Amino acid sequence: MQRLFCLFTALLLGMSLSAQPKTQSVNYPRPKLVVGIVIDQMRWDYLYRFNPLFQSNGGFKRMMVEGFSSDNTLVPYAPTVTACGHTCVYTGSVPAIHGITGNNWWDNQLLRNVYCSEDKSVSTVGTNNDAGQMSPKNMLTTTVCDELRLATNFKSKVIGVAIKDRGSILPAGHSANAAYWYDSKTGNFITSTYYMNELPAWVNQFNKRKLVDSFYNIGWNTVLPKAIYSDYATDDVKAYESKPFGKDLIGFPYDLSAFKGKDYSKIASTPYGNSLTVEMAEAAVINEHLGKGIATDFLAVSFSSPDYIGHSFGPNSWEMVDDYVRLDNELGKLFSFLDASIGKNQYTVFLTADHAVAHIPGFMKEHKLPAGNFDDNLAHKELNDLIKDKFGISNAIESTSNYQISLNHDKIDSAKQDIDAIKKLIISSLLKKDAVANAFETSKILISTLNKTQREMFANGYYPNRCGDIQIVLKSGYMEGSNTGTTHGLWAPYDAHIPLLFYGWGIKKGKTRKEYYMTDIAPTIAALLHIQMPSGSVGKVIDEALK
User: Fold this and answer.
1) Distance CA 94, CA 101 (A)
2) DSSP bridge pairs for 192
3) Residue by residue, what is the 3-state secondary structure of 337-398?
4) pTM of the shown model
5) How far does the chain reach from its first CA to its final CA, in angstroms?
6) pLDDT-derived band of residue 23, with 50, 70 and 90 as boundaries?
7) Mutual orientation of helices 376-391 and 419-430 as an angle, nearest 10°?
8) Pick from 403, 416, 480: nearest CA to 442
9) Which terminus of the chain has a lower count of CB atoms within 10 Å, N or C?
10) pLDDT digit string (tens) for 248-302?
11) What's the pLDDT at 154?
């Protein structure tokens, strides 16, 4: 009887299961590998200004001719700096949400300056200094790399590579398999215990090659005849350019041999920093078997050297022209390597920038164009002196960074002074300075008298605990800093108009001039991969770019 009952139960169970709808596993097609390329400090107009110098089999022309170009892509927030840009590209979000409000910021809860990727809870791996005490913990949202890992139940591999730690760590995301960055004290690529307890054998082997010393032996001369450079930039040497290699090493050719084995920081200010990055990226593809597994892998690469070169020499220098000619060649080599190792049309690439850059004020003045400098350190001192004279508070201003002023609220409260009166004094004083176009309280961005574009950009950059009390808006062409070199960080198009190219698997051939934003990159890649967009994304899919 018991046996009959069991058979009857099994029959009923079978009938119940057969009544359920049948499920079918759908394996959505995806590329074998996604390569995200962020060029640290690239103006959009370089694609066209330097286009005649790019090789037909190089990187930029290949992407522009065979891929998709979004020619009117803008950064939708301020400040337009490295950490914010790399985070925005990969999160599809803005500082007001992802929390990375600058390379550094004054933290109103910790009451100290914080570096974007600092993490004192981890240790350096690969050297015995503190250059590796880094992680993505200050980033408050996921990246598209994180979402890919989630979508594939962490079968996808994600690797970040850059000279700058923030250029490697923030794009790769919280769940990355590894992020590697360059240690300027040893000339090695390193990481932190956030990712691993010791470097893989292949990274140790890569470091033993000491490629930096080989590049120093070569030196830096123009890769094309100097006569050609005269058509694209001003003279070889200008007084308003900085001297990153020392006061005695000025103009081409740069003999770098004296730095061999002694100073590994100088390589970042040469195009060889890009070469080193490509070599490391290719080594990662080979040794981590990227693009060879059952799930799509992701390689996040940032080229940091254009930023170092750009800050020193500016957009209208022979050094900048030479750097982009060489970078085009390096990208061509990288794509040829990917063709051979992954397969042509089996991988997808996007290329963009974290920000653009202004011309050097000295260059602008030389050509009767509006520009100038704003000495933020002097302004800091002058305003503190002014507050002390009127309110009796010493060092009421804690920080002047990211074009913002942060006040010491505890000091002001203890002195029982009116903070609103102090803010009004600061703003009225700033508005008297020739370089300043506007100044206002950051907490009142949305009700301040501002152009709509400016209002939205400043609001998108405002995360209360990591931003100052007062926002400074400089006039067009003006910037913080000294009288040599240049910088970025403003809302203006020369800092905010960036390139955006897509190429490879799943990408249409074409171009658009519609207005898109840096926040649109991550959701577009997410749509391509059929995965969820990052947790703080506010962008939209650039559907025109996708097949």
Assistant:
1) 9
2) 124
3) HHHHHHHCCCEEEEEEECCCCCCCHHHHHHCCCCCEEECHHHHHHHHHHHHHHHHCCCCCEE
4) 0.94
5) 63
6) very low
7) 140
8) 403
9) N
10) 999 999 999 999 999 999 999 999 999 999 999 999 999 999 999 999 999 999 9
11) 98
Q: How many helices (H) and strands (E) does the chain have?
A: 20, 21
- Structure token pair of residue 277: 């990055």
Buried b (16+ CB within 10 A) or exposed e, 330-369: bbbbbbeebeebbeeeebbbbbbbbbbbbbbbbbbebeee
Q: In whole angstroms, give the CA distance from residue 545 to residue 18.
A: 44
Q: Are 529 and 34 in contact (CB under 8 A)?
A: yes
Q: Is the per-residue pLDDT at 503 higher than 80?
A: yes
Q: What percent of the chain has pLDDT over 90?
A: 92
Encoded amino acid at 414, one letter: S
Q: Tokens for 351, please give them.
A: 């290329």
Distance CA 232, CA 222 (A): 13
Q: Looking at 369-481, which runs of residues are DSSP E strands?
A: 372-374, 397-401, 404-407, 436-441, 470-474, 478-480
- d(CA 89, CA 518) in angstroms, rounded, equals 6
Active site residues: 82
- Of 178, 153, 171, 173, residue with least CA distance to 283: 178
The encoded tokens of residue 405 equal 């002023």
CB-based burial of residue 377 (10 Å sphere; 0-12 exposed, 13-18 middle, 19+ buried)? exposed
Residue with tokens 């700096």: 81
> Among residues 101, 96, 107, which one has the least CA distance to residue 80?
101
- Please list, in sequence order, all residues whose beta carbon lies within 8 angstroms of the beta carbon of residue 486, skipping any fewer than 6 positions away: 310, 311, 314, 315, 357, 358, 359, 360, 361, 479
Domains and CATH numbers, the chain: 33-366+492-545 (3.40.720.10), 372-475 (3.30.1360.150)
- Is the pLDDT at 341 greater than 70? The verdict is yes
Dihedral over Cα of 117, 122, 128, 130: its sign? positive
Cβ atoms within 10 A of the Cβ of 492, count? 23
Position 11 pLDDT exceeds 70? no
Pairwise CA distance, residues 356 & 489, whole Å: 9
Answer yes or no: is pLDDT of 1 > 60: no
Give the residue-averaged pLDDT of 116-143: 96
- Ramachandran quadrant class, 246 (left: phi over 0; alpha: psi -120 to 50; beta: rest): left
Residue type, 56: S
Distance CA 42, CA 476 (A): 19
Tell me how far apart the alpha carbons of residues 312 and 306 are, in angstroms, rounded to a whole number. Answer: 10
